[in-house]
């Protein structure tokens, strides 16, 4: 059952990510249909993230009360209905509103799903489980790119959106029959207990020191940089391949699929490597923090090479390896945040994912402005946007590796948790 639950969550994330990817795949026809400039397209591309972060925190925190299964089911149902509303889009303002509402429906999905995965998988296997879940988005690139591009070319982008809504309803029906959590004992929490953390009233004075700690701050910043790359790849990468590499729409679709293959292999292998390290030494900092931070630095360095070589093969290799390594942030950062305050798993996971999604709001717009200011030299505008992403990944990857150590927080918490458990 745990693998069936994980498969449905991965399929849900596939739909979530494919919904964002369509905007990139359909960039040219939408811009032509509504006569949009690069700046306007950047606004439309980032609209899905306007409410994403706010609703993400509220929804994921609410899942701690109502249950992750109910919250996940509601989101899948909600966005499936909205995706059918693509036929009502008639211009830029309606497109922006439509994307903003979709973002609100999808906002809490990833943190809530990560919290749900914590119920079904033991600590030493959560990295692989989270990797499989996150790879739902990569499969969306692998399988969805040529399929969606073909649908857009032959049937229009509205039909492509509606097809995702239909698939969402199928997932929703299957989700109804899944239990909230396992009906067997033995899955341990991060502290090695066989039961849930004792629930207690939320106290702001105890929470804000965690929020202002170096572990939290640099976790949020590296997540922000990673998300900037992810959103750039969804909104602008297809246009990069058609405008800079000069591929046809069909060629672009297959290039994105090739990137998806590399991404899945790289992210799965690096997650498995992190899991094996943790199983062997039980050192959270070495196996989770250092592996993640190093991956972000490597991603930034190889991305910067794109400004020196604008070839199709090299771009596929760099994006495949770079984005694949950066996916580790989506896998590990929620675990790091949950480790800082385990009894508020949904809230902590939502904080990092929602902060990451701020990059989704401003990233597409800044790229649009960079392209607009570059005038006819579109290649220069894209190069500047890539270098900006690379610099952020290297800088925050180094700071993350140097200053994040959740084990210090856990060692501080252990006496209090043991005392609180004995009282219960």
From TrEMBL:
Cellular compartment(s): Cell membrane
UniProt superkingdom: Bacteria
Xref: InterPro entries: MFS, MFS_dom, MFS_Na/Anion_cotransporter, MFS_trans_sf
Limits of the Major facilitator superfamily (MFS) profile domain: 5-409
Keyword field contains Membrane: yes
Keywords: Membrane, Transmembrane, Transmembrane helix, Transport
Annotated transmembrane regions: 42-62, 74-98, 155-178, 207-231, 251-273, 289-307, 313-333, 345-366, 386-404
Topology of this chain in the membrane: Multi-pass membrane protein
Broad class of where this protein is predominantly found: membrane
SUPFAM superfamilies: MFS general substrate transporter
Name of the featured protein: MFS transporter
